[in-house]
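Most newcomers find our protein records easier to grasp once they have seen one. There is nothing in a record beyond a sequence line and a structure line. Getting from the letters to the tokens is the skill we practise here. An example says more than a description, so a record of this kind follows:
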Amino acid sequence: MTSAPTSRFPYAKGSDGSRRLGYGADYNPEQWPREVWEEDVRLMGEAGVNIVSLAIFSWARIQPASDTWDFGWLDEVMDLLHAGGIGVDLATATASPPPWLTTAHPEILPVTATGETLWPGARQHWRPTSPVFREHALRLVRKLATRYADHPALVAWHVNNELGCHNVYDYSDDAADAFRVWLRSRYTTLDALNHAWGTAFWSQRYSEWGQILPPRLAASHPNPTQQLDFKRFSSDALKDHLLAERELLGELTPGVPVTTNFMVMSGIKGMDYADWAGAVDFVANDHYVVPGPRDRDELSFSANLTSGIAGHRPWFLMEHSTSAVNWQPVNVAKQPGELARDSLLHVAHGADAVCFFQWRQSAAGAEKYHSAMVPHAGADSDLFRAVVDLGGTLEALAPVAGTEREPARVAVLFDWGSWWASEHDSHPTSRLDYHREALDWYSALLRLGVRADVVPALHTDFSAYDVVIAPVLHMVSQTAAKDLARYAENGGHLVTTYFSGVVDENDHIWLGGYPGALRELLGIRIEEFGPLLDGDTVGLDLELPGAGAHATGSLWTDRIDVVGQDVAVLARYRTGAYAGRPAVTRRSTGGGSASYVSTRLGIEGLAGLLPELLAPAEVTSELPEEARGSVELAVRRDAHHRYLFLVNRGETPVNLPGTTGEVLAGPAAAGGLVLPPREVVVLRQPAPGSAGADQGRPLG
């Protein structure tokens, strides 16, 4: 299972001591004059805020010079928040070193692959492997922990901030030294490293550890395993900094849980968060919507994956936006209802706290056009009224706090190693997008109204799922191959795709034909890939019940030969170089099956194919037919109840006939439920087997 945290979650407490969902934001009082602070606390009370993240970028204010400390202002803010009934997730403030530190020690600044220094003036201008930075950062952490260990407002520690957002890859001499230490730990001997890196190619064999460098700018394609190991190392280097701060906090404040904010969202790929999960007491995540036709699919996918990383235990939404952000090419404001829908979709997938960046919109600085809970227009605004309304909704959802996500029958595997390796240079195509392919499968499941979990590939018990979908599972070790074969033999149904099973954990090709490590399980053999040029497509005939169905593939094709027993061809290429050859196959094995999809079908094509791939496991939608594709269903549960979150994904009302349960939040109507556009309804039902439980379909 996932290397999950222990879930020492900093629950907000109601007046009777019961759990409540957390609600709040990053709070940056140092940006505002003293007279604003009391008004902030008053407005927080009006909005229902019960937790804030404090001091995230306050290092220069707390320590204005090497031997000068100023805690007076922070003491006062902590006291004001406590008096207002607001808990504090106190940051260690190490995210951005102050000017005096970078002036005295420019050797802490990151270096790019081309040898350029990243200078101060923005944020995160520090090397994860710098011993000088580590020394100063831990000195600050010790000061903060010692001073606030017993403060009644302190409910959690917030290590650094968005580790690796801007400094994940550092190519400095400090990084080179640390990379060599990491490699010696991984391989022990140079012979083992030379084998793993395939250094017989291009005369790259190393005879001393000191000859090894990070993959800096090179004359041609850098060694692919060197690139892969540097990605692994860079994720580990940031995790090591997280652990260094956590260890000190654990020593000084053992009763206070520690976290940091992950960034499980589109475009962030440098940190292996599944590996990081065990380094925190509870998982926290930042997520921002990128407007587009699939924006809420991606939000759902990322929230779902965050839950998978957290082992389906409650997690903390540390940041998202009330409306527009400031860093996209065009920063679009959210429509009415989207603030609440986005927030509640995170709650549906396991978030027990909903927080924003930030509380009060900045008047100066790089993020002054980023929305906040209190906008430039002030409290007399539609945005703040929506914030207050959401606070009321979250208060009504207090019974959900502490519940876990109910596992689905279908899992979509997500693997950081395959993500990194499949998109290297000098590959059959540079157009492959691992995240997009995984999201396509998830979007197609949403289109069909089928609940699915998104889970880390290397930390998942496959046997918990009837169907496991592993898109572009490019990197497969011998152990993983055996686990997948055992899963299918024992009755599970595996679905994988093009460019899967091709390399081992060292990025070495599995010889004998593709898909390498999965060839025997799938019962097929591929001698040569057929990547497609931009704009080229191929037609497929789906050989399914009802026949005559067509689909279109892009990006990739495979020249498949069926070599195993009990292999059915579910689709053939109608056009292209491999016309007449299999395009989609399924091999029956033991009590289960293993299917292969050899081209990018996109959401429409996958939605047409998935019912056949799900059929052997008898997986269908739990939603009424008229709601499928328009409504997303997510379920949380405890020993006594199920909590159904029904989210209208579209712009038109949706009827949900036969839907039963106590309405905790959202619209209710006698005689049936109509879900308006961009609305969410939360229903409470008795758990199966409990008194009053409906033994029929969950929604009717």
